[in-house]
Amino acid sequence: GVQCNGWSVHVPSDVTGELGKMVILPCTFTHPYKTFDRALTAIWRIKEPYNGTVIFKCVSQSSSELCKTAISHKNKYKLLGNPRHKDLSIRVDSLTWSDSERYFCRVELAGDSQDKYESRNGIKLHVVAAPRIINITVSSSRDHTFQARCTAEGEPAPALTWTGPLYSNLSSTSSSSHRVTKELRSLTHDGKYTCTAVNSHGRAEGAVYFYKFRASDSSSFMILIFVPLGIKVVILLVILSFTVFSR
């Protein structure tokens, strides 16, 4: 907490939330008045204090009136605390990766221009997630070789491993923020190839099946063509012989 002339703001330095779920950002404060019945404004902003983007704002005109929401970006921010009870805590719904920001709470009391206070260091929100396989494919290159590619996301960024039939150890890994891709090159053996993604919050698996087309040799190809043709000729001769015999 930070105190100045009877003012103080108390927030945790860090809060962790899970992707797709909700999280609560706590904020409480004190002011130098024993009672206060004038207009009160609660504000939350992101990225930086004082000049950051406002993502939530509510106003209460008197102690008997609830704080009416004036701004709630994308309608995902809800007031949980009661500003009249010195509590500005909010709930953030449906967390996305972009919600990983620093949040700052602010209170403004109508009257003297100095009756306003804001958390200077704010709260760092960390969005975490168990791994999820988002793409897994097998493709061919211009040099007629085959490779399997697996892309997963999670936070912390997951570690990827390939398992399956005997294969070359040629592989490459690339990552960007919470997303990781690992490519397995020069596939030569048929079968099932499994990609496993693991981080501290869980694991996920995805699989692809690789079967390389092999053309039949010439002798087998000739047999496949002429055996059915020979059978048809024999059947035709039998039918003609039967017809002649009947006549």
From TrEMBL:
GO cellular component, as recorded: plasma membrane
UniProt key word Lyase: no
Pfam families xref list: I-set, V-set
Ranges for domain Ig-like: 131-200
Positions of transmembrane segments: 221-245
Signal peptide bounds: none
Keyword terms: Membrane, Transmembrane, Transmembrane helix
Protein name per the record: SIG15 protein
GO BP, sorted A to Z: regulation of actin cytoskeleton organization; regulation of bone resorption; regulation of osteoclast development
